[in-house]
Amino acid sequence: MNHRILPSAQVDPSAEIGDGTTVWELAQVREGARLGAGCIVGRGAYVGSGVRIGDNVKLQNHALVYEPAVLEDGVFVGPAVVLTNDRAPRAVDPDGRLKRAADWEAVGVHVAEGASLGARSVCVAPVRVGRWAMVAAGAVVTRDVPAFALVAGVPARRIGWVGRAGVRLAERPGEPGTWECPRTGEVYAEASGELAEKR
């Protein structure tokens, strides 16, 4: 395979690392994880057991991606982002005994194609972040995010729409529900709280 793993990174032998992917210093990729081609795993990032990551995904420094997360192609995960996996986290059970892996059921975060998660944002599983959506830095996502939505705050709420270029869309004057990207000129249509590209 044509990939690069820095000497201080820990990559389990059962993990699959795609061509052109780089795993930087002090990162950890656990058993059974699968990373596609052209990915970047930043310094100190964590990829949990069995996590599925597509092609051309960027995990910035100290991002924590807990199993069973799925990240589709082209996803951006900013510095110190956390994708959780436990609805009711406890170190011990009601009798005070230390909980083991078999004592809870992991739930995952699914991040669809092209979406971006800003620095220090948290996705509280189980949630899905839609295609090309953008989560603002520091946001806490507790419910599904529609495709192309721009969400911010605690808990995260939609504050606008973004296009594939990551730029906030502007509603066309005199055309309610029609949005345009000021950078690319791409046009989008809004209906029932969802946004879709116009063909």
From TrEMBL:
InterPro entries the record matches: Hexapep, Trans_hexapeptide_repeat, Trimer_LpxA-like_sf
Record protein name field: DapH/DapD/GlmU-related protein
Lineage: Bacteria, Bacillati, Actinomycetota, Actinomycetes, Streptosporangiales
Organism from which the protein derives: Actinomadura sediminis
